[in-house]
């Protein structure tokens, strides 16, 4: 565990380019909050440039709670990173990833593109990703693969991200086979990101906390079924040539995390948070870019105290329920 309380500026930032989203997914905080207007939710271009100008970046992840393709500034942000030799990519729900968009993204030289796909059937997927159509997303994913091949491009690296829950884990083996037929490079399976146990059961996080408790695989109640699905998915991955990453079911060793030493997460409003796993800028804030520069925040007392706590046996409450900290993500 790192112990330096004031490390050098990070080489990686994750920036929420917009807090607006066109879906209401069951496991996402967006579902449990009022809708955000597309223009009002976008990080201003001026704030973005001021942020990246002050950090010696090697990697930039352009995603947060919202759908990045809704940001009118996304192409400009990608171009800025590419021009500076910064590796750049983002995650999308792919509902807006039509042929024109796919061709533009391939031409942009974006390094990676992750697509959220939590089922191998319309019934399972659409029950989770409310507002999306399974057939449209599959067609858009196929179109992205075709656009990349037509351009003879090595980028973007295409990865599908599957959030494993009780309601959909049985879909996993068939999804691997489907992605193999489409020609997707990789499938990353992950657990739900947070238990939200640190929040008030009667407060604003009650709904997502209750949902997580009902759907999380780490409780062990569905262990045998989940393990069987993971084993079948592994066999399918070997047969189809899909690179597969699977999460752990239970904690291994003591909690740990290097995010506050290596990277930072910035919301569309300019709130600096310790990582991308927090969800909700009211849960923890280490500074505000409308009031201070990123270097001032990074080297400031709030960050120093957060690092000190995280390196101790008494970590911040927001970290205790985090899947990444508990090694189950």
Q: Would you give an account of this structure?
A:
The protein has 329 residues and is α/β, with parallel strands linked by helices. 35% of the residues lie in helices and 14% in strands. It is built from twelve helices and twelve strands. The strands form two sheets. A ten-stranded mixed sheet has the order 9-8-7-5-4-3-1-10-11-12. α3 links the parallel β4 (87-92) and β5 (112-116). The mean pLDDT is 95.
Which series of helices and strands comes N to C?
EEHEHEHEHEHEHEHHEHEEEHHH
Structural class: alpha/beta
Unreliable segments of 5+ consecutive residues:
none
| Percentage of residues in helical conformation | 25-40%
Shape: globular
Strand composition percent: 5-15%
What is the strand arrangement across the widest sheet? 9-8-7-5-4-3-1-10-11-12
Q: Can you give the mean pLDDT?
A: 95
Regarding quaternary structure, how should these chains be classified?
A: single chain
What's the Cα radius of gyration?
19 Å
Terminal Cα separation, in Å? 18 Å
How many strands appear in the DSSP assignment?
12
The tally of helices reads 12
How would you characterize the largest beta sheet? Answer: 10 strands, mixed
């Amino acid at each position: 565990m790192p112990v330096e309380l004031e490390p050098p500026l990070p080489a990686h930032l994750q920036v929420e380019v917009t807090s607006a989203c066109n879906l209401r997914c069951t496991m996402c905080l967006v579902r449990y909050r009022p809708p955000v207007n597309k223009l009002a939710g976008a990080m201003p271009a001026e704030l973005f440039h001021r942020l990246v100008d002050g950090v010696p970046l090697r990697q930039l992840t352009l995603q947060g709670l919202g759908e990045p393709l809704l940001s009118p500034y996304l192409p400009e942000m990608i171009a800025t990173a590419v021009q500076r030799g910064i590796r750049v990519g983002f995650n999308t729900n792919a509902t807006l990833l039509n042929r024109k968009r796919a061709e533009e993204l391939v031409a942009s030289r974006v390094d990676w593109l992750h697509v959220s796909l939590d089922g191998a059937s319309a019934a399972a997927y659409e029950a989770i990703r409310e507002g999306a159509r399974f057939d449209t997303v599959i067609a858009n994913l196929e179109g992205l693969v075709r656009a990349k091949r037509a351009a003879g491009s090595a980028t973007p690296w295409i990865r599908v991200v599957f959030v494993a829950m009780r309601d959909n884990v049985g879909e996993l083996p068939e999804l691997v086979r489907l992605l193999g037929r489409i020609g997707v490079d990789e499938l990353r399976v992950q657990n739900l990101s947070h238990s939200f146990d640190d929040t008030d059961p009667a407060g604003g996080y009650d709904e997502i906390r209750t949902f997580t408790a009902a759907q999380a695989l780490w409780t062990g109640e569905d262990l045998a079924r989940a393990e069987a699905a993971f084993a079948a998915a592994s066999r399918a991955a070997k047969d189809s040539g899909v690179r597969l990453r699977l999460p752990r079911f239970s904690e291994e060793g003591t909690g740990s995390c290097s995010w506050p030493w290596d990277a930072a997460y910035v919301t569309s409003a300019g709130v600096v948070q310790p990582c991308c796993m927090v969800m909700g800028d009211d849960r923890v804030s280490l500074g505000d870019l409308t009031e201070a520069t990123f270097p001032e925040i990074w080297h400031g007392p709030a960050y120093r105290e957060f690092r000190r706590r995280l390196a101790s046996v008494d970590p911040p409450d927001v970290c205790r329920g985090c899947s990444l900290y508990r090694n189950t993500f």
